[in-house]
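Retro notes, item 3 of 5
We never archived the inputs for the zinc ion complex last cycle. Fixing that now. Sequence and ligand:
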Amino acid sequence: MARTVSEWIGKTDDHRAPPRVRQRIFDDCGGKCHICGVVIVGKKWALDHLTALINGGENRQSNLKPVHITCHAVKTAADVAEKAKVAKVRGKHIGAIRPKQSIKSAPKPEKPAPKPMPPRRSLFKEISAS
Ligand SMILES: [Zn+2]
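Structure as it came back at the time:
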């Protein structure tokens, strides 16, 4: 029986997992891509953070899975898009991003047609000369 090994945790987010840890993760997953489930053949694979570092994931063994390079690129793009969406919503929520347009009010109801003017009166009385 193999002895138990404590989980590897990167000292920083940039710290790359050492080869023995990469091999351990690869073997734990049966050499299959975590995203598409196909067996990884050759050297074209990478370790993917299940919860991306930019989305608050940790650089530790339990958050790493082997994936194909091509599958990894697709997931990374999705993670970046998610991060951008979260940042935009949060920015609007805290007021860091202001709305580009003012909120439009409801259209005003149409004004009724103006009342017809009363007939004109003359200002002076006409005096009949008789
Ligand atoms: Zn894959």
